[in-house]
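Need residues for this backbone.
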């Protein structure tokens, strides 16, 4: 009887400890306020070219005339939904965003790779934004094909062929995905056939990764969504503002981190670097962006690593939240 009682107590204590450990791991890895000095908060974005950040690597560039959208992920299902359910867009939310940001002016949707946190809303957006061309890997195009988007609006990404959209000239650059994790081990795999939503997260195969180099009379920009760099790939680019993915950066070896930052921040020497893919994408957009839970990443460490590196070479780091458009006008940028 005494042994039974002892065992029960041990089991109870263990479960309570496991519960607390899980709670701890589900908390954000740090507070965004720690980085308030780097946050952009000016509400008046007085520039011809602006960017609106929607978390992960969804970025809307708008020069008042045309818009281009990098990736399409606004619906942000919760961790429980991602683990247990099929995923789909939230039409009400998207209709609201389309109106609020006048997304009917979107002329192109450029996809960095096909994981759901970059493409979940691509089918819905492609259906609604009828003037937009969809550009991405064969896998990304297969996500659009799942929603019966006409072939005339689908363009396979072609690094040798820049695309001119109004004043935007966009070149795709082959890139590398963030190193694989246990739940993210499909790198190089393709979506072979049209993928209809709803679908489970693992059906969104990576399908190859691309950076986008955006030249505009106001500024030259590079968007690098994933934490992976091909050596010497970026050395001939002229970049004013670099949008740099830092997902999982602090979890990599010191040598990897050094190589990644050398090949991006050091090679490009942009005036400004804006970290992306640091936010908890299991939270809805209605809430201010926050860091990922500890169980998924240690984003504050990655951000600090980037800040230390960038500031050594006088590149300014600016942290964007999802409710403030950021001006990309040369005269508003600090000079180094
Ligand atoms: Zn990915």
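Answer:
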């Amino acid at each position: 009887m005494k042994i039974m009682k002892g065992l029960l107590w041990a089991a109870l204590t263990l479960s309570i400890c496991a519960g607390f450990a899980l709670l701890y791991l589900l908390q954000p890895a740090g507070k965004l306020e720690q980085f308030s000095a780097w946050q952009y908060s000016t509400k008046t974005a007085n520039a011809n070219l602006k960017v609106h950040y929607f978390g992960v690597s969804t970025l809307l560039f708008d020069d008042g005339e045309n818009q281009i959208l990098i990736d399409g992920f606004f619906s942000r299902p919760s961790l429980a939904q991602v683990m247990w359910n099929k995923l789909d867009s939230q039409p009400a939310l998207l209709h609201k965003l389309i109106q609020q940001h006048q997304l009917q002016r979107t002329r192109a949707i450029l996809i960095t790779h096909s994981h759901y946190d970059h493409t979940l809303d691509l089918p819905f957006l492609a259906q609604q934004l009828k003037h937009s061309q969809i550009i991405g890997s064969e896998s990304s195009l297969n996500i659009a094909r799942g929603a019966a988007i006409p072939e005339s609006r689908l363009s396979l990404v072609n690094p040798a062929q820049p695309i001119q959209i109004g004043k935007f000239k966009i070149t795709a650059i082959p890139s590398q995905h963030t190193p694989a994790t246990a739940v993210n081990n499909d790198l190089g795999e393709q979506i072979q056939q049209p993928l209809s939503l709803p679908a489970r997260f693992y059906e969104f195969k990576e399908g190859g990764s691309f950076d986008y180099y955006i030249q505009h009379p106001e500024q030259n920009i590079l968007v690098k969504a994933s934490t992976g760099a091909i050596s010497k790939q970026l050395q001939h680019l002229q970049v004013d503002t670099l949008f740099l993915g830092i997902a999982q950066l602090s979890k990599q070896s010191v040598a990897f981190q050094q190589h990644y930052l050398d090949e991006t921040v050091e090679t490009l020497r942009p005036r400004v670097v804006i970290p992306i893919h640091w936010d908890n994408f299991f939270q809805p957009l209605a809430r201010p962006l926050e860091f990922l839970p500890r169980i998924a990443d240690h984003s504050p460490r990655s951000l600090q690593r980037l800040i230390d590196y960038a500031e050594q070479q006088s590149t300014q780091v600016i942290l964007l939240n999802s409710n403030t458009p950021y001006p990309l006008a040369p005269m508003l940028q600090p000079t180094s």
